Amino acid sequence: MASRSFSRALRSPLTRQLTSSATQRRTLVSASRHARTGLATTLKPTVTASFQQSRGLKQIDFAGVTETVYERDDWPREKLLEYFKNDTLALIGYGSQGHGQGLNLRDNGLNVIIGVRKNGASWKEAQQDGWIPGTNLFDVDEAISKGTIVMNLLSDAAQSETWPAIKPQLTKGKTLYFSHGFSPVFKDLTKVDVPADIDVILVAPKGSGRTVRSLFREGRGINSSFAVFQDVTGKAEEKAIALGVAVGSGYLYKTTFEKEVYSDLYGERGCLMGGIHGMFLAQYEVLRERGHSPSEAFNETVEEATQSLYPLIGANGMDWMYAACSTTARRGAIDWSGRFKDTLKPVFNDLYDSVKAGKETQRSLDFNSQPDYREKYEQEMKEIRELEIWRAGKAVRTLRPENQI
Ligand SMILES: NC(=O)c1ccc[n+]([C@@H]2O[C@H](COP(=O)([O-])OP(=O)(O)OC[C@H]3O[C@@H](n4cnc5c(N)ncnc54)[C@H](OP(=O)(O)O)[C@@H]3O)[C@@H](O)[C@H]2O)c1
């Protein structure tokens, strides 16, 4: 691509002297930071969003559609402590989310305990993070028996597997919390049929648990969606918002369990991960088959995308990225975007149908319930790592300006 984006030169060791201006570097670094943190709260609504209320509940106009957003300012620490003063938060599972949400709850001063199986990797990890066996670290059953709010952060497959043991412990008056709508929405497949006499709520951070933690430590908050599946007490929504803030959210977007799980499964299989990987592979393979070198194919497919152009989209939108490129690049990109959209839209429709029909859920349950699923993933990761495109990428990364001495 014949892009003349100012930031493109930053990645090339040969031309980086041409673009060493501090302003340009700051712009790119700031754009990259926003891109890395995804929907971090530092991303204020743009000109299309207008705030209509100063505190708490906000009606925000997202491109003509008004949506409800809540913010953490309405739940200062003292209010959270008062609200949850009679609660024990039993957080079950200590993977990415358990780690991030659990440590944030602890740092917020709430009464949180962790429940994981004693022979698993999480038990050791939790101890490394300062959770003490018998004090605030227990096996799953003991933690649930002590909890008033049970935060089910086991893997989605494990939520289904352990449900027969967990369900009888969810007695009247407890609250059940998830970070994904997966288990209750697809209850025909997962068998997670929640008891009728408890509140069931969701807070789904829009990012990895590691980001939930790192943003909290920086004094910021991750954006999350929240939802109510069942409201027995009349307080379920308020509790979800308060818990969302307590686990480290900045802004909280209201959704439903169904919408959360459909959009999440769809997005990660599409543009967020699967779709983008497929597109990278297709473009790279054609370049290689047409005689281009690995470095050229990688630079024109991945490196320029991730290091220069995508951060610009993240910072200020598609038009801003187009505007930062040459008129030649812009003309071709605008012309071809329609054809790509038309070609890919049927695939996205197939994907959405597959998600809605529960096929993706079934696949995930079948695969991730196998005792050797970790080894199988490792084999798949190895195959990806060893593809020529990603081996070429490893070499290209060593030439990045920041990796030069
Ligand atoms: N990761 C994300 O970025 C993300 C983002 C938003 C929402 N979520 C949602 O958050 C929830 C937790 O996801 P996660 O990624 O944090 O965790 P995960 O890596 O999927 O799950 C890890 C936890 O599940 C436990 N576990 C697995 N199989 C088990 C079994 N048979 N019995 C008991 N425990 C078992 C593991 O314990 P051992 O160490 O003992 O195996 C570990 O503590 C899911 O609903 C997920 O969809 C995740």
Describe the structure.
This protein is an alpha/beta fold and 405 residues long. 52% of the residues lie in helices and 13% in strands. It contains 18 helices and 10 strands. Strands 1-2-10-9-8-7-6-3-4-5 form a 10-stranded mixed beta sheet, with helices on both faces. The structure holds NADP nicotinamide-adenine-dinucleotide phosphate. Residues 93-98, 116-117, 120-122, 153-156, 158, 161-162, 179-180, 182, 204-205, 208-209 line the site of NADP nicotinamide-adenine-dinucleotide phosphate (NAP). NADP nicotinamide-adenine-dinucleotide phosphate (NAP) binds next to helix 3, helix 4, helix 6 and strand 8.
**Sheet having the most strands:** 10 strands, mixed
Query: Quaternary arrangement of the chains shown?
Result: single chain
Average pLDDT metric: 87
What is the helical fraction, as a range of percent? 40-55%
What order do the strands of the largest sheet run in, or round the barrel if closed? 1-2-10-9-8-7-6-3-4-5
* Ligand identities: NADP nicotinamide-adenine-dinucleotide phosphate
Shape assignment? globular
Radius of gyration: 23 Å
Number of helices: 18
Number of strands: 10
Distance from first to last alpha carbon: 28 Å
Low-confidence stretches: 1-54
Q: What are the secondary-structure elements, in order, as H or E?
A: HEEHEHEHEHEHEHHEHEHEHHHHHHHH
Structural class of the helices, strands and pairings?
Answer: alpha/beta
Instruction: Tell me the fraction of residues in β-strands, as a range.
Output: 5-15%
